[in-house]
Amino acid sequence: MTMHQGRLPPHYAGLLCTWLFALSAPVLAVQVGDHWDLGGAVRMRVDDDSQRHIHKIGMDTVMLGASYASDSWIGAARYRFYGAEYPYQYVPHFGDIRFMEYAWIGYRFDPRHQVELGLNQVPFGLQPLYSSTFWETLGNIVGMEDIDMLGGKYRWDTHEWNVQAGYYVRQAWPGHGTGRGSTYSVVVTPADPGVAGGTRNVERDLFVGRVARKARFGEWKGEVGFSLLTSSLYNDDTRRYGRRNAYAVHYSAQKNGWATKLQYARQQMAPRNPHGEQTITVGGYDGTFNLATRGNFYTGDLSYTFVDSYLVGWVKDLTFYSSYSLYEKSNPAFRNSQRFILGTSFSLKPFSIYLEWLNGRNDPYIGGNSYTQSLAAGSINRWRNQLYMNIGYYF
Length: 395
Known about the structure:
Elements: H1 10-23, E1 30-32, E2 36-49, E3 54-69, E4 73-82, E5 97-110, E6 113-121, E7 148-157, E8 161-171, E9 187-188, E10 201-217, E11 220-235, E12 240-255, E13 258-270, E14 279-284, E15 287-292, E16 294-305, E17 315-329, E18 337-348, E19 351-361, E20 384-394
Antiparallel strand pairs: 1-2, 2-3, 2-20, 3-4, 4-5, 5-6, 6-7, 7-8, 8-10, 9-14, 10-11, 11-12, 12-13, 13-16, 14-15, 16-17, 17-18, 18-19, 19-20
């Protein structure tokens, strides 16, 4: 990673060494009995954006989790902590922003059939993620990718088929933060004060179904699938119910170290807002912003993973990848949102490292001129970019 003509400033280098020393301290995963696993992660981040004069190194996340597995019962939970460091420098202490990522229990009827209840991932489209990247795709912030809600799902696996169906009562209850978007997942959320044109909706009674089948095209082995989603959108101002409908088709495959992921999705929301239904407010990670209610979502990911290890076994799972995603808004007056990422990831004992070149256009997370409007009407219609690195110690 280059900063300031190819080298880190002295105070950055010192801070980086301090974090690496702290992360390398002996922290152990704890196993209780035969079925419990207690662990977590400590992660730091590096952000370099010359356009916005951002050159930051600091703590990213602390995660604490537990999982359980037996012949019949399964379950998992994880909680996240943020704060004090960029981009949460507006709170005084680390941990002032915190929320549950997931917390669920499940039962295996047999190797093919299981149910999960609690705060668990909504099975829509590519699973578990739409790309190889750390930052994920635009699908995450339009409410499709890596979304955990409160409810239950049933899963049926065979050699050829994977079928999942779920019912989710509501989004996760808020954690602790400074605003209304204090959840891990980006979900429909009442707007914080100051969000121009913000709405006050919540999502309820979400039904989802996903069917995927193993597929082989020459030497490429993977799956093709189709997903459907529908839910209610309740507006606190009009006290009326609107609707959200979405569907997706996806394909993923691997061949000799290469891997690809492709998906198309269509989303249509009709919230009963007092001033029209072209936008709706969503939120997560202690922020809320507006989203165009109707649009087509496209994403493609290509990666290559080296099977060999390097530097006497210290460097493993070396992967290079590229990812592109587009949210094509149906309103012709709105500017489309795009995200393109080039990156690499690898494990360097005992760390997991991602280094990415992030490019965004009308992307609220990557240099957008307007955090609250980029994913709705749009802001400055040109590409912004930054370098990002995440170093995690998982225990």
